Write the C-alpha cells for this entry.
Amino acid sequence: MTTTILFPEINEQIANITAQHIPDDRKQILQSLIDFIQEQKNEQQKIHLNFICTHNSRRSHLSQVWAQTAALFYNISDVSCYSGGTEATALFPVVAKTLENTGFKVEKLTATNNPIYSIKATINEHPIIGFSKKFDHTFNPESNFAAIMTCSQADQGCPFIAGASKRIPITYEDPKAFDDSPLQIEKYNERSLQIASEMFYVFSKIK
C-alpha cells in the first residue's frame, strides 16, 4: 500500500508521532473510534467524523486536522473530518501556529473575528477548512457521522447529538490553561503531538 506524500516537514514528524507510547486505557477509549471507522469502511460507506469541543477553538481543530492527515497517510479513502462546538468563537491563533510549526501550510483566508483558515498537509489534496462553528453548522454533516467529544464539558453538556450514528468521548486536557505563560508553545505542541499520535494509532488499525 502506498501512502500519500505529505509535506516534508510533516513527514519528518511521522516517526516521532508513531513512536509515542499510548497507555492501554487510552487504547481502550480509542477502540470505539477504530470500530466505527472499520464498520463504515467494511460497509463501503463514507466516513464522517465530527470532533466536538465547547468553543471549537483548540482541541477539536487539532483532532480534525490530525485525523484527516492520518487518513491521508494510511490511504483510508472517503474520510471527511469536521469540527464544531457547543458555541462558536474562533480558531485560536496559537493552534494555527502550532500546526504551521509542524509543517502544515496554513493560510488565513478571511480577516474577521472568526477567521477561516486553509490548512494543507499535502500539495494535491483539498485543504482542511478551519473555522469555529457550532457542531450542527451547515458546513458539517447532518447525519451518519461519529460525534467525537474532545472535552469533558462538551461531553457532559451535549448528551445527545442529532444525526450522529455514534457518540464517542475521547477527551483531552485543554492547553488553554497555559495561555500567556512561558510554557504556552511547549504545551500546545505537547497536546498536538498527543492528539496526532492517537489519531495515527486509530487509522493504523484500519484494514
Remarks:
- The radius of gyration is 16 Å.
